[in-house]
């Protein structure tokens, strides 16, 4: 993969969450993602009663995941197809203390639902992070030049 892909996946792994929703509904909700670069998939753990899980239960849905982390220098709008998954091995792999906080009976809780987002495209803005931003703004005030705010690119999966 390209340097842009390495940059995107590396920074996405360092970012814990974003806003996830289906493109048919304007409502995006905060969700923690778990990235699988080799498969081009983002995984999410949610409850069966959530709007996202109920919408995905009707069949695979076009979805969007928006990530914004100035400290890591990543801003991305990620598109793909969201579907339900009953992959218990994947749930075992992803399960952690944060996920367990939401479910009384842990990963055995009957309300646990794994969501799978197969990625199709990501529009990415990659900056140097918050310190670099401040430096670029200060430099622009001294030199009169526009600040260098990093790279903007699109990845197709």
UniProtKB/TrEMBL annotation:
This is General stress protein. Residues 3-148 form the General stress protein FMN-binding split barrel domain. It comes from the Bacteria. It comes from Paracoccus liaowanqingii. It holds the Pfam family Pyrid_ox_like.
């Amino acid at each position: 993969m390209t340097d842009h892909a390495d940059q995107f996946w590396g920074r996405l792994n360092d970012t814990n969450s974003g806003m996830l929703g289906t493109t048919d509904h304007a409502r995006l909700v905060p969700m923690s993602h778990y990235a699988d670069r080799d498969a081009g998939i983002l995984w999410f753990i949610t409850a069966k009663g959530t709007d996202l899980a109920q919408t995905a239960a009707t069949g695979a849905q076009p979805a969007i995941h928006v990530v914004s982390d100035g400290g890591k220098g990543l801003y991305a709008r990620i598109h793909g197809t969201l579907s339900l998954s009953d992959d218990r091995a994947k749930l075992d792999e992803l399960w952690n203390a944060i996920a367990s906080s939401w479910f009384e009976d842990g990963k055995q809780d009957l309300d646990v639902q794994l969501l799978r987002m197969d990625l199709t495209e990501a529009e990415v803005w990659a900056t140097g992070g918050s310190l670099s931003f401040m430096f670029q703004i200060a430099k622009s005030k001294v030199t009169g030049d526009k600040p260098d705010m990093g790279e903007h690119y699109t990845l197709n999966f």
